[in-house]
Amino acid sequence: MKKFRLQNSGPYLVMAPGMIILLLFSIYPLIFLLKISFQDYSPISAVKPFVGLDNYVHLFQDRSFWNALRITAIFVASTVVLEFAIGLGLAIILNRLTVGQRIYQSILLLPIAMAPTVVGLMFRFMMNDQYGIMNYFMELFGMSRVAWLSNTSLALPALIFTDIWQWTPFMMIILLAGLKGIPDEPYEAANIDGASAWQAFRYVTIPQLSKIIYIALLLRTIDSLRIYDTIYMMTKGGPINVTSTLSWIVYDKGFKFLEFGYGAAICIILLIIVVSLLTFVLKKLDLFEVEDRP
User: Fold this and answer.
1) Which of 12, 98, 176, 263 is surrounded by the fewest CB atoms within 10 Å?
2) What is the reported pTM?
3) What's CA 34's distance to the chain center, in Å?
């Protein structure tokens, strides 16, 4: 074993600041979160007794948790699938443009330049049942006003629509970068073989984009799982908890009712879901495989 020498310490010194920041802002909070998930932890109580798995048992018996898990699954599945489909369509159109591509691209990217709180507030005003612009246009076409955010059947679709409006450009720009990286030769070979546009898309474009697609879907799924800002500005989890996601009930239980231990347990379950998704995608990308070296 080689002895540690000062002249060999350069890489460690360069890495040290980043590792210290990672330890302080990622690893320590995670350990603390795991610790309080096994406690009846409240900031207003000096005693924080260890309760073992009681928070987790209570969590799986709590109807609000299962409702939030169901709402989160619907929200994530709807937004990610629609954002991918629309984003891919826009990316293909932009990739084929020869004039004004950068201008259209800049315009389409405007929504992701806005803070989620601003977007939530903007759509809250637009969907207002009294003076919202969406109801104005509905009346203009002879339809009656709709209470978008106070109707239990429409509140979640309204939230999904808002998320799609803001984050579809994110999916679009990732897929557009992938499309620009595909060489022309496979398309030329497909054209010589007499492949139709659909066959070229299915057998050339999609396989070439597969890894980019996995990464884009993973990033949007993780981001959708932690949605909070837009919900706070638009619905605050209502009406009657129809827009109450896992991230929202963490805030609701932890900061409104000061049940920090219970909120931490929900965070751990959410973390397990995210890590499971990450592991699945990394395996699909073959990032866990180590090439054999002679």
Assistant:
1) 98
2) 0.87
3) 23
**Residue 96 belongs to what domain range?**
70-260
| Series of mean pLDDT values for 10-residue runs along the chain (294 residues) | 57 80 83 90 82 90 92 95 95 88 89 93 91 88 88 94 95 93 87 86 89 90 91 91 92 86 92 87 64 43
| Tens-place pLDDT, residues 242-251 | 999 999 999 8
Q: What are residue 50's DSSP bridge partners?
A: 39
For residues 107 and 100, what is the distance between their CA atoms, to the nearest angstrom? 11
Which CATH number do you get for residue 208? 1.10.3720.10
Domain count, the chain: 1
Q: Which helix (H) or strand (E) holds 237?
A: none
How many Å separate Cα 234 from the centre of its chain? 18
118: its two tokens: 């601003």
User: What phi, psi does 292 have (nearest 5°)?
Assistant: -75, 130
In a domain, 12, yes or no: no
Compute the C-alpha angle 92/95/99, nearest 5°: 130
Residue 216 near residue 182, CB atoms below 8 Å: no
Is 55 within a domain? Answer: no
Q: Is residue 19 part of a domain?
A: no
Pair of tokens at residue 29: 């909070």
Cα–Cα distance list, 82 to 59, 88, 90, 125, 161 (Å): 31, 10, 12, 24, 10
Length of the chain: 294
> Would residue 281 count as lying in a domain?
no
